[in-house]
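User: I'm writing a short report section on ligand binding and want a predicted complex to refer to. Could you take this sequence and protoporphyrin IX containing FE and write out the structure as tokens? A short remark afterwards would be nice.
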Amino acid sequence: MKTSTTGGRMRIWDSPVRLFHWALVALILLAYLTAEGVVFSMDAHVLAGEGVLTLILFRFFWGLVGSDTARFSQFVKGPGAAIAYLKAARAGEHHPHLGHNPAGALMVLLLMALAAAQAVTGLFSADDILTEGPLASLVSSSTSGLITEVHGFLFNLLMAAILLHIAAVVFYLIVKKDNLIRPMVLGVRAAIPGVAEPKFVSPIIAAALLALAVGIVYGIISLGG
Ligand code: HEM
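Assistant: Sure. The structure tokens for the complex follow:
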């Protein structure tokens, strides 16, 4: 581990995580606006969903072999650590974290799981008129109908989780005076005394994993003929 904290700042998020995050935000917004009929057609909705699936698959790979702050093994600490963190936070303690804090980590996993479930159910969904997910033809129309209902229900859960996520980020900004948004944009934050900079893995490996995710999702979609 390096201990360099150039100019009182330290790098915490690599470019793959940041690109993943903001691309996910853009695609979920696009999926929402297309589903509501505000922009483009439902074809764009299906493409946005396939894009979300690709991003989540990429992030899963990156969570296994990516940079320190991206790795599940580094930031997933379990409910016990999350509760202890929240209790300390309630008592007024605030220790900035290198990457996700234990409670934020659970939220991050929930967001990823809901986004993945939303995209996977979308593959099998159909509106009985014009739009069909790429794998809807592989299941009966009653099964597809049921999955479509789950797809709609999950959307509400995802929206609730996103609102909570944004509220938490705004809470940190205003109450804790800890700006988490800037690092998610620029990659750097104010140095945390006594904490070393994390280890970063080359973005070339991330690009290869993204290509692998694209290939896998393309293969899955092709199963629908
Ligand atoms: C404008 C709205 C949003 C803002 C300002 C925002 C901000 C942030 C910030 C600051 C973090 C890092 C938190 C930390 O330091 O631990 C983060 C992480 C994350 N956010 Fe958001 N977010 C937004 C919208 C969304 C949306 C719509 C999603 C969709 C599901 C999302 C999913 C995630 C995920 C999965 C992570 C973890 C990133 C990773 O480890 O790769 N965010 N967000």
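A remark for your report: The chain has one domain: 9-222. The beta strands are 9-11, 188-190.
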